[in-house]
Structure formats: C-alpha cells, structure tokens
Amino acid sequence: MIKVKTELPEVFDSFADARQQGFLAMKELKDSGKGVVGQFCTYTPQEIFMAADLVTVGLCSTSDETIKEAEKVLPANLCPLIKSSYGFAITDKCPYMYFSDLIVGETTCDGKKKMYELLGETKNVHILELPHKQDTPEAKALWRAEIVRLKERVEKDFDIEITDEKLREAIHKRNMERRLLKEFYELSTMTPPPMTGQRQLQVLFGSQFKFNWEDKVAEIQHAIDSVRTAYENGERTVSEDAPRILVTGCPMGGVTEKVVKVIEDAGAVVVAYENCTGAKQMDRQCKEDGDPITNIADHYIQIGCSVMTPNPNRMELLDRLCQQFSVDGVVEMTLQACHTYAVEAYSIRRHLHEKGIPYLQLETDYGTADIGQLATRAGAFVEML
C-alpha cells in the first residue's frame, strides 16, 4: 500500500488564487477517499485507472516558472516540458503532481527516462517500457506485457482488483469520451469554422483536468451544443476567407498556445490539431469485444508519435486530417531540444510538399521572449497562402 498524501504543501499560502483552488479541489478529492494517478503521455492507457475507479490527471507542465529550479539538477539544453515537469515536482507547486499517489511515466524519449529516475527518488513512479516499433510481434507482445504489469502495479498499490468486466466498461466509457471530443473538433470542418483554434484548444486541453467522468462528458456535449447552436443562429467568429491551418508536432497547452495566437492574429484560423492534445489520441476507437488487455495494448501502440520508427501512422493521420478539414497549410510546433520531432520534421515537410501542402516549422520553448519572431514568421507564412 502507498502512503496517501492529503495535506496541503507548506508553500500553499504563497500561491495565487487559481492555483490555490486547484490544490483545494485535489485535496477535496483525496479527502473523499479517491486515489489519484498522474500521467505524462498519450501512450498511457487511462482505461486501467478508470477500471480501478481512480482519478487520472495530466502532468506535462506548460510553464517556465520552475525551470530555473529544475536546471539546478537537469541540463539547460533539455526539452522544456521535461524541465518544467520536474521543476513543478520538486517545488510542490503543481497540485496534480503533489497529490498523485502514483505517477506513470513511459520510455518515449531519453530525456524523460532519465528525469523519471530522479523523480522516483521523491515520488511513487511506475515506468512503462514503450517499444519503438508498432508492427512486429515482439513489440506487440512486449507492450501487452507492460499493460499487464501496469494493471498489477495499480492493483497492488491501491489494494483493488481490476476485472475484465471493469476494463470493458472503462473502454466503453473512454470510447464515448473520444467520440464526443472528436465530434467537437470536427465541427471545424465547416466553412467558415464555427470557432477559433484557441477556443478548440481550450476545450481539448482542459478536458484532461475534469475529474468526474459524467461531468466531463456532459461539459463536452454542452460545448458541442453551444458551438453548433450559435453557428446555426448565424454567429460567425471566423472569416470565410481565413486560411485554414493544421497544427502538428509537440504537445500544446499553456504558454505554447502563443503559437496558435500568432497564427490567428495573422488572419488564419487553426482548424485541426494532429498532436497529442488533439486528434492523435481521439481519432480511433478501442475495440470493445474480446480480451480487454489485448484491445487496450493494440489500441495504444498504434498512436503515431515521432518516437516510433518508422512512423507511418502519423503520416496517414496527417493526410486524412488535411483532406477532411480542407487545410491550406500545416504548422509544426517543435519544442527546443525535442530531438525526435525535430528530426522527423524533415520527413513531414517532404511528405506534405509532395502533396502540395505548404509547411512551416516553428521551434519554441516555454518563454515569451520569442513571440515577436514567431509572429513575423507566422505572418509571412499566412500571407503566402
């Protein structure tokens, strides 16, 4: 059994009101007896935690607030997502990291793997061994075994039995969530789109911080209904002539929303997100019939991330989204020192150019000093569309 943390951190009184409210909301969950699992990656199967009636929270930090603290341990020339996440962990400034009873990491990239080792010195950490191939029997067998190992770890840590019946129910509920989020972002296939890319991102990113499943699906449905009703009533928030942009690359949220803002300030509209925040995790349904562990393993290993080699599923999803959303151009947001996405950007550029789709890569971090440069490059790109 794990030691359950229910008290607020010593630095609580120094936090701004919004963060205090986040801590209080998490404390209320913990006081009610709920276990909390923190996860970093789209490859982490939420169905395991849902089947155990645990709360799942996303831990990929999106601010440079704690990076200086992190750089006392981690190298400066490391991905800001890794430094920020570690910084929030060691400073107790993130309510989700602080109250997580179990943190699940994964072997997506080398920087994360080594950071997780350090994180494990102060947190209860479980690492999923993610194979970097998707189509071999050996990779599939390893990944299924890793899902079983995660299930057994959750059962042990939280003293609970996860049955096949509970897993099937969790798959069904997660599929419903995926369908609703997909229905929401597919509203932007319309011309003109009924919402800005900033509005779409707020819902997609914010959905991972809704802890009651019934409330979450109700809020997503409300977002769908409100956007559709406003559009049917003649409300137009986006010009019909605005160039339609698809965003791909690294995970987005928080400070990196600046990329969406400069694109839309330049007169374009972001209609689709292929990245982890968007279609990458919502596009497909998990099979519900048959062995639930095998279904979960088969579903998640097919996600098209740049850590996979080769990575045909990302190309296939990009092609489909570009056609479905009538995309005029693609912008790739790459975080500094994210080597897998930085290297794969060349293949993405070549692939899209062969199809006649304009492409722009924007490299950035969690600071705001580069907003002017980003705006200049985004403006020039939009102007040529």
UniProtKB/TrEMBL annotation:
| Entry annotated with the keyword Glycoprotein | no
According to its UniProt record, what is one Pfam family this protein matches?
HGD-D
Tell me the keywords, alphabetical order.
Iron, Iron-sulfur, Metal-binding
- The answer on whether this UniProt entry bears the keyword Iron reads yes
Co-factor requirement: [4Fe-4S] cluster
Which NCBIfam families does the entry mention? double_cubane
Query: What is the name listed in the Swiss-Prot or TrEMBL entry for this protein?
Result: 2-hydroxyacyl-CoA dehydratase
